[in-house]
Amino acid sequence: MYTQAIDLKPGAEPTAATPAPGERERAFEAAIADDRRIEPQDWMPEGYRKTLVRQISQHAHSEVVGMLPEGNWVTRAPSLRRKAILLAKIQDEGGHGLYLYAAAETLGVSREDLVDALHAGKAKYSSIFNYPTLTWADMGAIGWLVDGAAIMNQVPLCRCSYGPYARAMIRICKEESFHQRQGFDIMLALCRGTPAQKAMAQDALDRWWWPVVMMFGPSDSESIHSAQTMRWGIKRLSNDELRQRFIDATVPQAELLGLRIPDPELRWNEARGHHDHGPIDWSEFWRVIEGDGPCNRERLAARVQALENGAWVREAALAHAARHAGTGSREAA
Ligand SMILES: [Fe+2]
Ligand SMILES: [Fe+2]
Hints:
Elements: H1 23-33, H2 46-65, H3 67-71, H4 80-105, H5 111-119, H6 137-154, H7 163-191, H8 195-214, H9 226-231, H10 239-257, E1 267-269, E2 274-276, H11 282-292, H12 296-309, H13 311-332
Antiparallel strand pairs: 1-2
Helix pairs in contact: 2-4, 4-7, 6-7, 6-8, 6-10
The structure holds fe (ii) ion (2 copies).
């Protein structure tokens, strides 16, 4: 789902210095200046490559871990139709993870190493997936808000300077649009239902709002590597710009649902032409990112167990491939 610019904490690994001017460097800089795509076979600065590996792999991990909170409700969906939609949505997220691991592999890293780093707790994923899904309304809130935030974040990535990442984003964004609408549809059904159903929808909004607002990552003033990432054309809009766009788009949707956004300082600012919002509790954000959110341990344990449970499939596939290769060589002889 969702890049979060979580590499931007002050003191995080620095990006490499810009290399001395040379032919390859000039070709790279010219491509960036002309808004052309950088492809895997092109020369690129090591800092650019590392930044992309980190961002794309965090994004892939987020897609895959992001299947877990919703997976919690597949067996308890309120109708066959809702269950089929939720299953399709979760499968899409698995697909997004696979495109993104493949995009990362074009940068010379292996999917196995990336997954190992996730399971060892060395790689990050979006903080939002470390919150629990307590009621069916959370399926609505996740689709409406989390996938809605993902769209804000990912649409500009369709113009990312790295070709494989930008192309993966085009299809992913189309699917995120369906995810957002299915979530809003769940919220709408609950808000038009009984008072208890509407209260359930309000409770989900109350719990998800601030974690979703944090999904865009730290404020621009804290994002010390943001300028370089934007200069390289990896990122097109700052964290605060994306957050503002999301809030401005979501406020009228909440009004349509008849729900109250849990921010007493949220109000339209005529002079700015945007909504002002209250302060964000960044200490919660960093606590969750660093591994101490409500579900961090549970999420990682589920991913490790999934890898272990699938070991026999990988072994069988390798054995089959080896036997097939043996047969092929005998036939060739
Ligand atoms: Fe996704
Ligand atoms: Fe999604």
